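Form P-L/3: holo structure prediction, ligand calcium ion.
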Amino acid sequence: MSFLETACKAAKQAGKMILSEVNKDLVTEKKSSSFDVVTEIDKQSERMIRSCILESYPDHSFLGEEETFASAQSIDQILESAQDIPYLWIVDPIDGTANFINGIPGFTVSIALVSQGELVLGVIYDPCRDELFWAERGSGAYCNGNPISISTVERAVDSVIATGFVSTTEFREINIASMEHIGKEFRTIRVLGSAALHLAYVASGKLGAFWEYGLSVWDIAAGVLLVKEAGGMVTNTEGETYQLSNQNIVASNLKVHPTVLNCLSHHSLKSIG
Ligand code: 2AM
Ligand code: CA
Ligand code: CA
Ligand code: CA
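OUTPUT (holo model):
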């Protein structure tokens, strides 16, 4: 099986298992704060994906949100040394755990493969709609086998933009503040609950753009490749080319990118620490 086939198989298997657990009694556990929670299903999903990948590629490296047990600092170190790692799989076993816990559609499985620091593969699966998005470096982006591409909309006022809220207060505050400007420029703002899904929707032209502060690499790595392969653009909120260590990102169809950056320039993370 190719890397792509392995990633698609892992994402579908895990996604179907997650879907079968919706609306069942779930034990939730707090992580860093009351806003930051995990269920046994997140962990089970990560274990399923890890075994599927490592069975095929036992010598590959694996970084997952729930069970890698690496500190934030050591994750930064892994990302800094990514150019020396032949194959690093980066996995979010459920992106949108809050949706999953509350039975709201829009949670996804996100699997990315980084080789020598370069994103080479991204797979995002939405089990509620049975939509499997994937991209391979240099080969375009697809949904359920059909090519996808970014929106051709020229003006912010004609496009829908999405964002989300991580659990950290500082990042929530700046996101709420930035809505004031974004809300005046774009047709409307959506908050669907999964950063990976937002990126898949920028790639498939449903959304003109997406921005969010305080994300982690597993939330966005797969989606960043999807957006780029679909013809879009991904930067940090300062407008610099995306790097794996970036937490604050803007993804768009290119045309509306300057408007997003301009709106965000009114707010500085520095001012909130
Ligand atoms: P999660 O469901 O995997 O935690 C919502 O806009 C996005 O923010 C989701 O991708 C969600 O991923 C992520 N998110 C929520 N809390 C987070 C946290 N404490 N740190 C990083 N990302 C978080
Ligand atoms: Ca989480
Ligand atoms: Ca996530
Ligand atoms: Ca998650």
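COMMENT: Residues 156-272 form a domain with the D-Maltodextrin-Binding Protein; domain 2 fold (CATH 3.40.190.80).
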